[in-house]
C-alpha cells in the first residue's frame, strides 16, 4: 500500500464524479494547519509528484485549452472549509464539528491485484496422480480497506466515521450497479490517465468497524477503521489514456480491461468524464470535483 492509491471517487449516473477518499486533501489540511505528524502518516509510501511539482491525485476534469490541446486541470485543496473546494463531509457551518475533520488516509487496500482469478483442480486417482484443471474463471473482487481517520477532536473523528458510513451505504447500492474511479499507481510525468480505472458494480459488503482506540498526537486525533467493498465485475476499465471530450471517449467495449476471464461485457455504457453533483449534505452547496 502506497501513497499512490489514495484515491476513491464515485461515478454517478449523470457522469459526475464525487470525492470519497483523496489523500491529497488530508495532506493539504495537515500542511496548512501545521498539525499532526505528516511524515509519520505517510511513512508507508512516498509522494506521488511529477518532476514539475504537479500532484496527479489533484487533477480535475479533462478539458480543452485555447490551443485545442486536452489538459488535466489541477484541483486546489486549501483546507476543509475553503469555499473553492470544501471537503465533502463539511456541513457548511463555520466552526462545526465537521470542519474539524481533516480527512482520510488509506493505510491498506487489498483486492486490486488478480487474486480473484481461479481455476478448479480435480485430483486424479491412481499411481501417476496429477490433476485435471477446469476453466479459468474470475470471481468478484473484494476490496478490504484499512483507513486512518484524522481530525481535530474525538467528535470530529466520529463525524468523519458517520459521513463515510452514510456515503458508502448510499453510493455503493448493489441494485444501482455503482461505479467507482480508482488509481492503482502514480502516473508517469504528463500521463495523467495511467493507472486510472473504472470499477463496475461496487457494493458495501461489511460496514465500517473501529479497529483501534483514538490516539492524540501533535494536536490531532487519529483512529483506524476497516471496511469491505465488493465489486461484481472483476474487470477494471481504463477508458482514456489521453484525456478527451465526453463525446469522443470510446464505448466501454473498446476500453481496456485488466485480465478478467470474460470474453464480452453484458452492457455497454459510454465512458463519462464531466458533470457536477450535489454533495451528501445539503448545506455544502459547492459542486463535487469533476473528472
Summarize the structure.
The protein is mainly beta and 291 residues long. It is 11% helix and 33% strand. The chain has a six-stranded antiparallel β-sheet with strand order 2-1-9-10-14-15. Strands 5, 8, 11, 12 and 13 form a five-stranded antiparallel β-sheet that branches.
Description:
The chain is mainly β. The chain has one domain. Helix content is 11%, strand content 33%. The chain has three helices and 15 strands. It has a six-stranded antiparallel β-sheet. Strands 5, 8, 11, 12 and 13 form a five-stranded antiparallel β-sheet that branches. Strands 3-4 form a two-stranded antiparallel sheet. The longest helix is centred in the middle third of the chain and has 18 residues, at 154-171. It is globular and about 75 Å long. Mean pLDDT is 74; it is low at 240-291.
Biggest beta sheet attributes: 6 strands, antiparallel
Average pLDDT, to the nearest integer? 74
| Number of strand elements | 15
Shape: globular
H/E topology pattern: EEHHEEEEEEHEEEEEEE
Q: What number of structural domains do the residues give? A: 1
Oligomer: single chain
Number of helices: 3
Strand content: 25-35%
Q: Please list the strands of the largest sheet in the order they lie side by side.
A: 2-1-9-10-14-15
* N/C terminus separation: 24 Å
Describe the protein's topology.
Layout (H helix, E strand, L loop, with lengths): L6 E5 L5 E6 H11 L4 H4 L17 E6 L5 E5 L26 E10 L6 E7 L7 E8 L2 E11 L2 H18 L7 E5 L12 E5 L1 E9 L4 E3 L2 E12 L4 E3 L17 E2 L34
Antiparallel strand pairs: 1-2, 1-9, 3-4, 5-8, 6-7, 8-13, 9-10, 10-14, 11-13, 12-13, 14-15
